[in-house]
Amino acid sequence: MLTWSYSSIKTFDQCPKKYHHLKILKDVRDEGSAAMVYGQQLHTAAEHYIKDSTPLPAEFNFIQNTLDAFNRIPGEKHCEIRLGLTIDYEPCAFFADDVWWRGVADLLIVDGTKGYLIDYKTGKNSRYADPKQLDMLAGAIFVHFPKVRKLKSALAYVVSNDFIKLEHVKKKQENYLKTFDSELERLAGAEGSGVWNPVSGPLCKFCPVITCEHNRR
Q1: C-alpha closest to that of 209 among 51, 16, 17, 13
Q2: Is 46 helix (H, G, I), strand (E, B) or coil?
Q3: What are the pLDDT digits (tens) for 76-107?
Q4: What is the distance between the alpha carbons of residues 42 and 122, in angstroms, rounded to a whole number?
Q5: Which residues pair with 82 in a beta bridge?
Q6: Is 113 within 8 Å of 151 (Cβ atoms)?
Q7: What is the pLDDT of residues 35-68, one digit of tens each?
Q8: Is residue 217 over pLDDT 70?
Q9: CATH, range 32-179
Q10: What does the buried/exposed string (b/e) look like for 126-146 if buried means 16 or more CB atoms within 10 Å of the residue's CB?
Q11: Are 122 and 159 spatial neighbours (Cβ–Cβ below 8 Å)?
Q12: Do 148 and 110 touch, CB atoms closer than 8 A?
């Protein structure tokens, strides 16, 4: 059974051949760019600051005011919470045998029937923001936390201090869970046909699939 995440479906959108090597054949590893490593370090620092008040490393002091504002929001705080869904939209563990979708919420605050969903971004600005990932996460949160009726969600671009804000409501849960249906249909088509065509683009020079004809490393 296909198991997917937001990052994997975006990899497929970028280049089916890259997806095939990274996710199906698994004969190539993406070691990640310096920007990716920086983002992972910031996420870890933010997690420990919120969860157990661990002081931020000096290079991340610039996000303290933002994190303090999140800390002041009342409710139970969940940092880097892993969520899983079955193909029938039932809650399951992140690594369950029947997991269909996996997602991680950087910060979820649950206060009774209200919730706050924050996804940290370390890009220079929000110009290419994709709020669809919040829609899918919101749907999963409504499944895992059935008492929550409304979510205030945000992509928090902590470097540029930009915020892409959305509101999600329980009654639209199924719509959110179908956010990526068209992408999943295309992925299923590639899987069924065995055709994983490469796509040439500006990111080819960073691609770990060095055997591809478009790779420009």
Answers
A1: 17
A2: helix
A3: 999 999 999 999 999 999 999 999 999 999 99
A4: 8
A5: 104
A6: no
A7: 888 999 999 999 999 999 999 999 999 999 999 9
A8: no
A9: 3.90.320.10
A10: beebeeebbbbbbbbbbbbbe
A11: yes
A12: yes
